[in-house]
Amino acid sequence: MLKFAPMLVLGIESSCDETGIALYDSEAGLLSHTLHSQVAMHAEYGGVVPELASRDHIRRVVPLLREAIAQAGRKLEDIDAVAYTRGPGLAGALLVGCAFAEALALALDKPTIPVHHLEGHLLSPLLSRDPPTFPFVALLVSGGHTQLMRVTGVGKYELLGETLDDAAGEAFDKSAKMLGLPYPGGALLSKLAELGQPGVYELPRPMQHSGDLNFSFSGLKTAVLTLVRDHGDLGSDEFKANAARAFQEAIVEVLVKKSLKALKQTGLKQLVVAGGVGANKQLRSTLDLEAKRKRFRVYYPELEFCTDNGAMIALAGALRLQTGTPSKPAGSFAVQPRWPLMDISG
Fold this sequence. Notes:
- The protein has 346 residues and is of the alpha/beta class.
- It has helices at 39-43, 50-72, 91-108, 117-123, 168-178, 185-193, 218-231, 237-266, 281-294, 310-322, and strands spanning 8-13, 18-25, 29-37, 81-87, 112-116, 136-142, 145-153, 156-162, 270-274, 297-299.
- The chain contains ten helices and ten strands.
- It starts with 7 loop residues before the first strand and ends in a 24-residue tail after the last helix.
């Protein structure tokens, strides 16, 4: 059995509107993680403003680093490598994290590890107290991505299906806006759905019986628009709650059915759910019920790791080092705002 020297990896996440810094020890696990969300700032504009996001990352990254170092009880000189999000994401925001990581690593004479943001989400359940083991099926529902993958190891990913248009998270946010909910609407829609009555409105389940593992949520978004136009009273809390419940039930049913099909198709008995939509209570409760009925295990990140964070980047960097992915000398400033996850599969 291979043994690896213990290493301390600093993780930096700045792909969109959260600044995350974390320290991960390959033997002791996660030592610290600090996070700043820009939600309040962007709410004034109804969505993320890229230039403001970049400037805020610049303001936050040093104080968050100092806080993470203090929490861990370590020194900068103890760091063995610096991992950072190279992409995908907002170009300016990514450049802040990249430039800071490369400059810090150069000053410390340490290597850097560029990390794929979605790989960070994909591996984030490994931070849990009861982590999955390889191989497993992964349902990745993060931001503009909805994908099902067979995961046999770090960097060993097989795409089983993906969205053909809007991702689940995008459908949540756009439908929330149609219902008059403020930014960030997806999380508010989920909370509102808890107050709605089931069965009041019926919305379509796109591609549920397509025979493959792909998704499509643009039609569901259009159905919400039609519902608001034909029956909506946006001044009525009851209408909005019932509409939100109908939307959430539709999207959860599709995600669950496709995930079950992926497990059956691969013959695997472990399902990992990662990304922001993975925090959805109805999705978790439905999958937990199906797991008991069909005798498989389902794993989620801790709620604090569903959003973008530095911990998942530090973990991914450490695992990449342990599996033989070469680090690189500091000083190369390059980001990839568009970066398919399958491009990094070994």
